[in-house]
């Protein structure tokens, strides 16, 4: 337990912020999984539209430092690559 009042407040804030970050990270993962599911179901145009919103979410998480910018770029690149491959084959 913190001995200083400001340290106790900081500890409380850290708990709240961590819970918020966990929720945001979960939202991101769910969004990515939904895009992957539509790709697996061979729904190219729907996957492409879902990717647009997911891409925005990924960028927002990187900007807020929830995930590393390189990880954001990696997710976007891999999803886009899978969607383009799906659209070429169909």
Task: Describe it.
The protein is mainly alpha-helical and 90 residues long. The protein is built from three helices and no strands. α1 runs antiparallel to α2, α1 (5-40) packs parallel to α3 (69-89) and α2 runs antiparallel to α3.
Task: Tag the structure with descriptive keywords.
mainly alpha; Methane Monooxygenase Hydroxylase, Chain G, domain 1; elongated
The count of β-strands is 0
Overall pLDDT level: 95
Q: What general outline do the C-alpha atoms trace?
A: elongated
Distance between the termini: 60 Å
Q: Evaluate the radius of gyration.
A: 18 Å
Uncertain regions spanning at least 5 consecutive residues = none
What is the CATH fold-level name? Methane Monooxygenase Hydroxylase, Chain G, domain 1
- Reading the helices and strands in chain order gives HHH
Continuous helix count: 3
Give the CATH architecture: Up-down Bundle
Structural class: mainly alpha
Any idea what the CATH superfamily is called? Ribosomal protein S20
Write the layout of secondary structure elements.
Blueprint: H1 5-40, H2 44-63, H3 69-89
In short:
This protein is mainly alpha-helical and 90 residues long.
